[in-house]
Amino acid sequence: MTANVDADSVEPLVRKTAAWAWRLLVILLAAVALLWVVSKLEVIVVPVLLALMLSALLLPGVDWLDRHGLPRGGAVSLVLFSGFAVLGGILAFVVLQFIDGAPDLVEQVSRSIDSTRRWLVNGPLHLRNEQIDSAGNAAIQALHNNQAKLTSGAISTAATVTELVTAAVLVLFTLIFFLYGGRNIWEYVIKIFPAGVRNRVHEAGIAGYGSLIGYVRATFLVALTDAAGVGTGLAIMGVPLALPLASVVFLGAFIPLIGALVSGLVAVVVALLAKGIVYALLTLGLLILINQLEAHILQPLVMGRAVSIHPLGVVLAITTGGVLAGIVGALLAVPTVAFLNNAIQVLLARDPEAEAEKQAEDDDDKAIIRAKPDHPQDESG
Fold first, then answer.
1. DSSP secondary structure string, 311-347?
2. CA spacing 20 to 30 A to 289: which of 94, 163, 176, 380?
3. How many CB atoms lie within 10 A of CB 138?
4. Would you kindly state where each structural domain of the chain is located, as residue ranges?
5. pLDDT tens digits along 48-85
6. Is pTM beyond 0.85 here?
């Protein structure tokens, strides 16, 4: 009785707010716990997610070969070897181009430094050679003073390389199994869910993976277009290392909206050192133009309905992923949101069969109620 009195003394709005608050706190606590577990297993989780993205890119080719009579294992091997051959050829070509263009770049940078030195001496600043030499010596002395930090950084870099090799091997093995028997793996995974919701979870996974395939295809085409535009523009302007810089833009464009622009800043720096401020500004304008074309034409046209995420959601996802996991988080944020967006829509959608059964039960109940007499009489009467 006392409990009912106490409950009645609290405003309904306060009771509803409290009920929502503790439920939201539980959800937030679960999300924090999940992120903590993922951070502890980052060496495993990140390669698996990368393998999942790569499988979304390569799986249609494997399925096509499988449908045309090639054994599944042979189709996986052919697609992987072809992908490695193309990627290796591109990397080798880029490295050779960089080696061939590096001497020219060094010469142009040396000329730029000499012209900058002359401008500092003969220009409006009227600096003396002794001041310029003193600034250079100070920079060299700073490097010597921080030699220990640089050495420790090299050691940590070696450890990072080891982790990268380990992650690459894990990505390769996971990708092979995803391409060869990914559907069987998914059918095994959904067995952990209750039998009543397995079909819905299965459909949600298929929908989410379909959106992931659409995202990876569209991003690949957009990145290729960005790289072609930047490389062509740099080649027309005569900026050295145009092809390697275009390759950097291609890799950066896998982070939507901002990736191509941020990675293209390397091209701006190279243009500034090699050709001067005018060409650097032209390169920056080219990057902004390509970024606008990507945001307003390429992204909506190529992705279409496969990934229906508002641009604000994309920006927030990239920012959150970058804060939580750096470059890898920014890379995986948007495909993760795309997957969850379609999967959750399927999970929350109404089941037509369940709605029909519920409607039939309601009709039966109403029929039973109508069949009962309003004033039953005593049989003995």
1. HHHHHHHHHHHHHHHHHHHHHHHHHHHHHHHHHHHHH
2. 94
3. 9
4. 193-349
5. 888 888 888 888 889 999 888 889 889 999 999 988 88
6. no
